[in-house]
Write a structure and sequence with these properties.
Elements (H helix, E strand, L loop, with lengths): L1 H4 L3 E4 L5 H6 L7 E4 L9 E4 L2 E5 L4 H6 L1 H6 L1 H8 L4 H6 L2 H7 L6 H7 L3 E6 L2 E6 H4 E3 L2 E2 L6 E8 L5 E8 L7 E8 L6 E2 L1 E7 L6 E2 L1 H6 L2 E2 H18 L10 H19 L6
Parallel strand pairs: 1-2
Antiparallel strand pairs: 3-4, 4-9, 5-6, 5-9, 7-8, 10-11, 11-13, 12-15, 13-14
The structure holds flavin-adenine dinucleotide (FAD).
The site of flavin-adenine dinucleotide has 32 residues, from strand 1, helix 6, helix 7 and strand 9.
Length: 270
């Protein structure tokens, strides 16, 4: 149908963003193609050590899924904090990622959990990291005729620690920060780290320099947390907007990196 109707048609999943954008005349389509009726696109399963989440799975179904809670608890917890129960019951993970709204949660955590997405069209299929799907604020890298069909997230292993924290003042989050650590000795040393920040910048951004500072002994990593936060703030294009100034967001990153580090290790975050 996408191939038949071209730019006259839009994909309709939960409609929570799409219908608002159409009401505000920001998007115009003569035809809406309802993805939720495609069989299998709302399924959640584990295959080959990874969670496979169909694109039309709602935030609520992911939050409540025993499979997700068991295999990637940080993802279930993050989903339980998206928006409100009405939006979570209708809005889908695929719709959230494709809309690329800067003040959203899932992509930031999926960056640190090494999530990938499957994209399909009449011409074939491709799989890319979540970071490559998002091209900028409200811009995905989907090509005409392409649909996101599946999100794949490696299952957590016993040596992995991860967490996500957000600050929400208004309707959409002001900041989201995700952290993933590999620790073979239960939190004494970290052999690998991934960290990402979202909402404070046009698109979720990994702090590659910060990640180097977050490996080593726990004592060293704790000393370097302010430096790592600074590196993250430098990597992100911090925005001045109604949520606060860029300087305020730099400060928030430092506070939330410290908190999420403790949370990932199962300690009180504050
Ligand atoms: C009041 C409110 C509060 C919110 N708060 C938060 C929050 O705290 N955190 C957060 O992360 N998000 C928040 N959101 C955003 C919410 O998560 C998204 O609205 C929802 O996940 C989008 O999914 P959807 O299925 O409704 O997408 P739709 O509105 O159906 O689609 C969104 C866009 O993506 C395209 N699309 C959808 N699915 C696909 C697909 N599979 N393949 C290709 N293109 C597709 C559509 O064509 C459209 O352009 C909030 C939204 C509202 C209205």
């Amino acid at each position: 149908m996408l191939a038949q109707y071209g730019e006259d048609a839009g994909i309709y999943a939960g409609g929570t963003e799409l219908l608002l954008a159409m009401k505000h005349q920001a998007l115009h389509y003569r035809h809406l193609i309802d993805l939720k009726v495609v069989p299998g696109l709302g399924s959640i399963a584990v295959r080959n050590g990874s969670l496979e989440i169909g694109a039309t799975s709602t935030h609520h179904s992911i939050e409540r899924s025993g499979i997700v809670r068991q295999n990637q608890p940080a993802l279930a917890e993050m989903e339980s904090q998206v928006a409100n129960v009405r939006v979570r019951s209708t809005g889908t993970l695929g719709g959230n990622l494709c809309f690329a709204e800067p003040h959203s949660d899932p992509a930031t955590l999926l960056l640190v959990l090494a999530g990938t997405v499957k994209i399909e069209s009449a011409a074939g299929a491709r799989e890319i990291p979540v970071g490559e799907l998002i091209g900028g604020a409200y811009a995905s890298n989907l090509q005409p005729g392409e649909i996101l069909t599946k999100i794949t997230v490696p299952c957590a292993k016993p040596t992995h620690r991860s967490g996500y924290l957000k600050l929400q003042i208004h309707e959409r989050p002001t900041l989201g920060l995700g952290l993933w650590l590999d620790t073979p000795d239960d939190g004494h040393t970290f052999t690998a780290a991934r960290v990402a920040v979202g909402c404070v910048c046009p698109f979720p951004t990994r702090g590659l320099d910060a990640e180097k500072l977050l490996t080593g002994s726990r004592a060293d990593v704790e000393k370097r947390l302010p430096q790592a936060a600074d590196a993250m703030a430098n990597a992100a294009e911090l925005m001045d907007d109604h949520e606060g100034s860029a300087e305020y967001k730099r400060h928030l990153i430092e506070v939330f990196l410290r908190r999420v580090f403790r949370k990932a290790l199962g300690e009180p975050a504050a």
